[in-house]
Amino acid sequence: MDPSKRQIKENRIIDAAIEVIASNGFHKAKMDNIAKQAGITKVTLYSYFDSKENLYFAIIYRAFQALTEVFYSTIDQNKGVSGLEGTKAIFESFFSFCENNFMYSEALLDYFSMIRSLSRDKAEDVDTSMTTQSSYFIRIQDLQNLPLKLTVKEMERGIKDGSIRSDVDCMLHTLQGWTMVVGYIKLLSASSKNESPLLNVNLKSLKELSLSLSETALAKA
Amino acid sequence: MDPSKRQIKENRIIDAAIEVIASNGFHKAKMDNIAKQAGITKVTLYSYFDSKENLYFAIIYRAFQALTEVFYSTIDQNKGVSGLEGTKAIFESFFSFCENNFMYSEALLDYFSMIRSLSRDKAEDVDTSMTTQSSYFIRIQDLQNLPLKLTVKEMERGIKDGSIRSDVDCMLHTLQGWTMVVGYIKLLSASSKNESPLLNVNLKSLKELSLSLSETALAKA
Amino acid sequence: MDPSKRQIKENRIIDAAIEVIASNGFHKAKMDNIAKQAGITKVTLYSYFDSKENLYFAIIYRAFQALTEVFYSTIDQNKGVSGLEGTKAIFESFFSFCENNFMYSEALLDYFSMIRSLSRDKAEDVDTSMTTQSSYFIRIQDLQNLPLKLTVKEMERGIKDGSIRSDVDCMLHTLQGWTMVVGYIKLLSASSKNESPLLNVNLKSLKELSLSLSETALAKA
Amino acid sequence: MDPSKRQIKENRIIDAAIEVIASNGFHKAKMDNIAKQAGITKVTLYSYFDSKENLYFAIIYRAFQALTEVFYSTIDQNKGVSGLEGTKAIFESFFSFCENNFMYSEALLDYFSMIRSLSRDKAEDVDTSMTTQSSYFIRIQDLQNLPLKLTVKEMERGIKDGSIRSDVDCMLHTLQGWTMVVGYIKLLSASSKNESPLLNVNLKSLKELSLSLSETALAKA
DNA sequence: GATGAATGAGATTTCATTCAT
DNA sequence: AATGAATGAAATCTCATTCAT
Description:
Number of helices of chain A: 11
Strand content of chain A: under 5%
Oligomer: homotetramer
Largest sheet of chain A: none
Shape of chain A: elongated
Low-confidence stretches of chain A: 120-133
Radius of gyration of chain A: 19 Å
CATH architecture of the largest domain in chain A: Orthogonal Bundle
Structural class of chain A: mainly alpha
């Protein structure tokens, strides 16, 4: 098939999968339903994605893509301001991204769990080729560090323009920011529909606290 | 059966489950393997745990117990020092706990995914009673907020003894600390067996950075 | 399970399979229907028989068993008469067996086709272990020549008692008889429900002609 | 397309199908492989043959054609000798034909299975028109009895010229001869790659025995 | 007429969970 | 309470056949 057509259809399938998975979660989503939602047969579905797992990798890839785009656009919109402001803007975008694309942020988290199981398989010499051959899995490999790198670059710009302390280890601080976002998603996901009593803390304040901690850490004294 | 004997066996099963789940994660673990590892049959396994999920709840409960104990003991060992120091010590313990009990920290995270899935089911009118009536699930409910509360209390002590700024929202800062730990676990799990190039950051420095951010946020100017 | 109980159930499944296959033929029979007919699930069916093919081997085995029993009983009933008469009786029984157990005779024919495909697989170094490991397949190997041997023995008795010519090559004549029966089944199967015009020959006369040819070949001049 | 070109291509496809089917039998042959072997796509294959079955009918038709030709040529070469000799020659040719064209003889046998299956379908009110309207199926109808008729005619010549007993039922004896050949093919196919111990009988002697039985039955005392 | 993609039916597998003894 | 067998739901695969272009 014309590669671009195939791509279009593949995307339609991923759209369908996202809809189904978004409402039921990955484990409860049925391939049958995804196929139905995409208006195709299960067999066709399998001709596009070797397995449910690989289909999920495609979604995860989209999540990384979307996140990356958000990062790029944030950077673009903050060319005029200081690197510190730009860095803060990136983290703010990241937080918003997670809030507005809950399914994607969940996918991002699941990704970490999945590579964790994968690696164990590898350790036990089980055949993981099926999974690791997934083109999307490979593409994720290429993409996963890009958001981090973009953040690092923005921080470095901040160092240059004097808005960020020169002794800041950009990679380290980027990762630290990332842990805060990741932890935030987790809390978000757990609390979004949960009546857990203690979590009556306004998540917005939590986000702001995290952002201000970052700023404090980066900004000149 | 003699209740205490049952308890012993139950614990043995949980031990077995931990071993099996530790190597491939919850979803890839098979009840068959767990039973085998425990030296019993699957049906016996089911006579102890209604479902795979409930078995995992037992593990999660253990994780919460272990974490709580660590918190208590940390608090105990830091009676003499300031509340700020005590708080820092708690977070340090938390980080160490995760590093040393990776499976437990994973279980803690999975717990959040599970209650999220539960709430989804509830929204869809699926019968969740089986799960929510699970004795371990109930026990977790009672325990889940304790570590948070203990941290809050320690922070409050810090406010009283003047080591922590009086305008600190203890619950908020506790949660913020928690997000950093949670994000840290995620990175930990993802990086442990992943050859991702950027993650050549020493995880120890990451932990220390997080701790120092917390301290800065709490300590008097 | 108690081996005998398993055997009983296995036999019930084979009974069900025979019913389904008898009315639709092997290729059109669905595993689903066989399972339903046996009052079990498909999975259970598969726990008894690795594949549809192996299930068919079980039926073929039964066919060989039934045929062997018929041969034994025929021999038993013809102890008093000459070897020639006994031999004729065996062939007569064979013919009747095919007429009365059409499904079995078809299975016998299919067996030859199946081992033919099997052997090609082997030649091409494809993994045939699945098929050849079938316990029924192995059992058939042990049984398949017994009817031939019994016929040979009866012929030899005929040579000894003087009713059969002493220069007869028993194995050869047995096989020759077998070819006539096999050919007869084929015609039977093709004609039974077919309105083929030329086959207005009475199949009974055909059988008698074959028998008389055999007798002529064996009997003393 | 130019009809003759179509015919050529059709034949090429049949050649390819024969190669593929020869190695594993009809049921294990894949349309995919046949298409590949013919150097065309599956859809093109289907534009030539409505179904796998119909493709096989084309092969079967070829088998009947080839067999018929052999019969004609045998008859032609035996004009000068007696009808009995001619009849024997026909059966001899038939045996040789099977040995030399194993795939064809198998196809001939399969044909009987197929028409049996068809008649079953008809009984169950399944629509069989697709098959029965297949041009090759129709052509086979016209041809299938010709070899038998030729044999009958040759026998009748034998009766006239006095070489065959006048009380011989030619149709019946022809069919009887046919059963022997059919049985022979079956044994041939089963033994060719089978390590069955008893089948150490020289198949050539078997053929000769069958022929001599026929001769005895036909020849004047 | 030819092509790649899709379909539908059925075989087979996996696994959590339940049943019968 | 313990066991082997069975269930049901879903994943996955295979292949003849059909569709859209």
